[in-house]
Recover the amino acids of this structure.
C-alpha cells in the first residue's frame, strides 16, 4: 500500500509505502511527524491514525504519603502484621490481592505487581525524590523527574498540548520534581487548585475575530523579523508562543463538563475521579505524561479506616480508567503506574496505624509494555523484608522506560560534554514484567 496526496497549494506529496512509514514511525513518531509537517501530510487521516497508534503515554497515580502494601498488593491475612482484611483471588490463577480491591482483582490480566521494592529511604521528601528520579540525589546535579524525562523522550516538537501535566492535591512531597538540568521547556504544568489551568481563556473583551487577526499580525511581523535574523532565540520565541496558543486551544481538554454524563457517572463524583478523567482526555489528545496525586495515605493512625476509604476509591477509579482506556484502544499505548514514596510498616502502632516503611513494599504497572497477570518478587511471611527478587528505585525506573520502548542506558549530554545516563550505570530492568523483551 502507498500513500500520496495533493496539498492545497498543488504540491504532490511523493508516495510513501506503509511499511516504510511504519518503520520510520517506530524509530520515532515525533521526529517523523516533525519532518513531514512541512508537506502538510499529517492531515492525511491514515497517517494521523498511524502516528497516534505509535504514541505512548503515562498516567502516574501517585499515592501521596505512602499506601500500605498490606491493604493493597501484598496482603498477609492471618499473620500478626496482616490487619483485619482478607486476601481474595483475582482472575489470574495464583495471584491474590487485598479484598479492598475487588474490581482490580478482575482486571489483573492487564497489571504487573512488584512486591519486592527496597528503597531504603522512608522520608517523605527523600522517598519522593528517589521514586520520581529513579536515583539518589547527587550534589551539584539536579536530575529531572520521570515526567520531564518522558516529556523529553515522548513529546513532539509540533504538539499543541502540554507534554507534562501534574494534577497535584497532596499533603506530602508537594510540588516535588521538575525538569532539572533539562530546563524549563520540560517543566510540568502544575494544577494544584483546580483541574482547569488559570489564565488560559481568551478575555471576554477580545472577540474571536480580534483574537485571530492579532495572531495573523503577529505571525506576519514574526516572519519578517525571522527572515533577516537567523538565531536560536527567534525560533525559541516562536515555539514558545505557538505552545501557548496550543494550550489556549486545548482549554476544553481540562473541562470535565465536556465529557458525557454517562462517563462521568462511571468514574464517580470525587476529585480524584475527575482528575483521572482529565488525565484520560489529555493522553487521548497526545500528552505524554500526566500525574494524578491522591492525598492522605500517610496513615500513622487509624490505618485500616483510612485504607478502607482510599483503597475503595482507588479500586473503583483505576478500574474505570483501565476500562475507559481499553475501550478507546489506548491501554496498549498507555502505562498506568501506581505508587507512592514508600510503603507502611508491618508493625501496627498503638494508634492502630502503620508508619513509614521502605524496606519491603509494592507498586504496580498496568498497560503499555507490561506482561499482565504477573507478580515479581516476594516478601517474607510477615512482610518484614524481601525474601525474593529485591529491587530498588533504579530497577523500577528502568522497567518503566523499557516498557515504553525507551533505552534505559541512553545518555543525555550535560553542559555540552558530561554524559548523564537515564538510569544508574549497571541498572537492569525487571524483564519478567515486560511484554516487549
Amino acid at each position: 500500500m502507498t500513500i500520496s496526496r495533493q496539498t492545497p497549494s498543488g504540491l504532490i506529496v511523493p508516495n510513501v509505502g506503509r511499511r516504510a512509514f511504519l518503520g520510520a514511525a517506530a524509530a520515532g513518531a515525533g521526529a517523523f511527524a516533525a519532518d513531514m509537517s512541512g508537506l502538510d501530510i499529517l492531515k492525511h487521516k491514515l497517517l494521523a491514525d498511524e502516528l497516534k497508534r505509535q504514541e505512548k503515554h503515562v498516567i502516574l497515580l501517585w499515592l501521596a504519603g505512602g499506601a500500605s502494601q498490606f491493604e493493597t498488593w501484598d496482603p498477609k491475612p492471618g499473620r500478626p502484621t496482616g490487619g483485619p482484611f482478607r486476601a481474595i483471588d483475582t482472575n489470574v490463577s495464583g495471584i491474590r490481592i487485598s479484598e479492598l480491591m475487588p474490581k482490580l482483582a478482575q482486571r489483573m490480566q492487564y497489571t504487573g505487581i512488584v512486591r519486592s521494592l527496597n528503597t531504603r529511604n522512608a522520608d517523605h521528601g527523600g522517598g519522593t525524590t528517589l521514586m520520581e528520579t529513579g536515583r539518589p540525589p547527587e550534589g551539584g546535579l539536579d536530575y529531572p523527574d520521570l515526567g520531564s524525562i518522558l516529556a523529553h523522550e515522548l513529546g513532539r516538537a509540533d504538539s499543541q498540548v502540554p507534554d507534562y501535566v501534574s494534577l497535584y492535591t497532596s499533603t506530602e512531597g508537594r510540588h516535588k520534581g521538575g525538569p532539572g538540568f533539562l530546563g524549563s521547556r520540560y517543566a510540568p504544568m502544575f494544577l494544584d487548585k483546580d483541574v482547569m489551568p488559570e489564565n488560559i481563556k481568551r478575555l471576554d473583551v477580545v472577540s474571536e475575530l480580534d483574537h485571530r487577526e492579532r495572531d495573523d499580525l503577529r505571525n506576519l511581523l514574526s516572519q519578517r523579523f525571522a527572515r533577516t535574523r537567523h538565531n536560536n532565540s527567534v525560533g525559541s520565541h516562536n515555539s514558545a508562543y505557538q505552545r501557548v496558543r496550543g494550550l489556549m486551544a486545548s482549554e476544553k481538554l481540562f473541562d470535565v463538563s465536556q465529557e458525557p454524563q454517562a462517563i462521568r457517572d462511571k468514574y464517580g463524583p470525587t476529585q480524584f475521579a475527575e482528575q483521572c478523567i482529565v488525565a484520560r482526555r489529555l493522553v487521548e489528545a497526545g500528552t505524554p505524561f500526566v500525574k494524578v496525586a491522591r492525598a492522605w495515605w500517610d496513615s500513622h493512625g487509624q490505618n485500616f479506616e483510612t485504607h478502607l476509604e482510599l483503597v475503595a476509591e482507588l479500586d473503583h477509579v483505576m478500574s474505570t480508567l483501565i476500562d475507559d482506556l481499553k475501550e478507546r484502544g489506548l491501554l496498549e499505548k498507555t502505562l498506568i503506574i501506581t505508587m507512592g514514596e514508600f510503603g507502611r510498616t508491618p508493625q501496627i502502632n498503638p494508634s492502630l496505624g502503620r508508619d513509614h516503611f521502605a524496606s519491603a513494599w509494592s507498586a504496580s504497572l498496568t498497560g503499555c509494555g507490561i506482561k499482565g497477570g504477573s507478580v515479581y518478587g516476594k516478601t517474607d511471611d510477615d512482610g518484614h523484608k524481601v525474601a525474593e527478587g529485591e529491587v530498588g528505585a533504579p530497577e523500577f525506573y528502568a522497567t518503566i522506560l523499557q516498557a515504553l520502548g525507551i533505552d534505559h542506558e541512553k545518555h543525555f549530554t550535560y553542559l555540552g560534554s558530561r554524559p548523564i545516563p537515564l538510569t544508574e550505570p549497571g541498572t537492569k530492568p525487571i524483564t519478567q514484567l515486560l511484554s516487549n523483551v
Notes: The CA atoms of residues 118 and 360 lie 5 Å apart.
